[in-house]
Structure formats: structure tokens, C-alpha cells
Amino acid sequence: PVLSGEIFRLNTDLWETVKTLRPRKTLFWRPTHIFPNTIKKIKNLGIQTISYNNDDPFSYKKVGHAPWHHRWLWFWCLKCVPLFDNNFFYRNKNVFEAKRLGACHAEVMLPYIIPNQHRPVLLNNKEKKIFKTDVVFVGHYERDGREKSIKALIKSAVDVKIKELEPQAEELKVLKEQMARRATPGGLTPKYRDWE
Predict the structure, then answer these.
(1) Strand pairing partners for 53?
(2) Which of 8, 12, 22, 109 has its CA 20 to 30 A from that of 154?
(3) Coil, strand, or helix at residue 158?
(4) Are 86 and 43 in contact (CB under 8 A)?
């Protein structure tokens, strides 16, 4: 994030709130806008700081052609990694990268469900025509292994919907079109919708 009045105000407001409330722990979820000095001041109050990131904050370093905003997106976050008492990541490789960066603690925290919030949604007949599918992938496309799973589903004639398909995923769209033109085992034709 580019330095602006808003980012300074966010850090000031955060500091004032923590200073007033004095929680035992403060959780930072994907902390892309937090300054190292803010973390230091919070820690000086004896408050435990915890960071969780379900994205890959180190990815821009591996991709030479990453857009400029990806480099800036993780700038402050990576500066804070060594300062947090606990760092949790979605990917195992990020644990090792965080430790190389100087993190005193880094660990994987996998996705989870909250049963009373994450439950099947009952659809009426009109909604079923729009949304019914075997699998939905909601997210952006990265060559980090997820494309292999999506390809396997498509090749197995599983009805797949993909939201937020990016130009880099053109190969999946082509594969989807090829599979849709072929009859599947058992004579079924897979339906692929919502690719745009």
C-alpha cells in the first residue's frame, strides 16, 4: 500500500484502540497496511501479536513479471513478519520463508469451518437452475497446484463452475470447451457455466 493519509490514520486509530482496550492478544488478518512501528508499540504494552495470512505474501518474489502493485501490497506485511509473536500461514512453504525472514514463530493454519455458519444452502427451483453444480471454485487462478485439481475435475466430466477466472487461466477455459464438445463416458455431456 502506498503511503497516504488513510494508512497513517489506520495505524494511529489501531494504536489508540489497542492502547485503550488493552487486549491480551491482537490478531492481524492479512496485515498489508500495518506499520512495523505500530506492531512494536503494541508489543511494548505486553500484548501478544498474531498474524494470519491465507494468501502468499512471498509470491511476488518468485514471479519476475508480477505487477507493481503486488510488490507494494506485501511491503509492510513482510516488514512486520519478524515482529509478530506468532505468524500463521496457509502454505507450508510460507513457514520456511517467514523463518528465513526472521520470524520467531511461523506455522501452518489450515482452513476451518464453523458448523453453525458454514452449512449447505437450500435453493429453490429457480436458484437450482442458476447455481446447481458439482464443484465451484471461487478464487483467482495461480499456478500453485490448484490448476491440476481443476483440470482433473474437468477431465472427469465433473460439472465445474469457476468464478474470477483470469486471463492466465485461458488453458482451463480451452480444456473446458474441448471437454464440452466431447461426449463423456456414459453419454453425458458436461455443463460448464459462469466462466466469464
Answers:
(1) 89
(2) 109
(3) coil
(4) no
- Burial of residue 172 (CB within 10 Å: 0-12, 13-18, 19+) is buried
Kind of pairing between the strands at 48-53 and 135-138: unpaired
Nine-digit cell at 42? 503494541
Nine-digit cell at 135? 464443484
> Any idea what DSSP says for residue 161?
E
- Please give the grid coordinates belonging to residue 72: 507494494
Q: Are 81 and 97 in contact, with CB atoms under 8 Å apart?
A: no
Global pTM value = 0.65
The grid cell for 175 is: 480444456
Q: Residue 58 to residues 38, 70, 181: CA-CA distances in angstroms?
A: 22, 10, 39
Could you tell me if 137 and 169 are in contact, meaning their C-beta atoms sit under 8 angstroms apart? no
pLDDT by 10-residue block (mean), the chain, 196 residues: 83 97 96 97 98 88 65 89 97 95 95 78 84 69 69 77 60 64 44 40
Give the C-alpha separation, 49 to 15, whole Å: 13
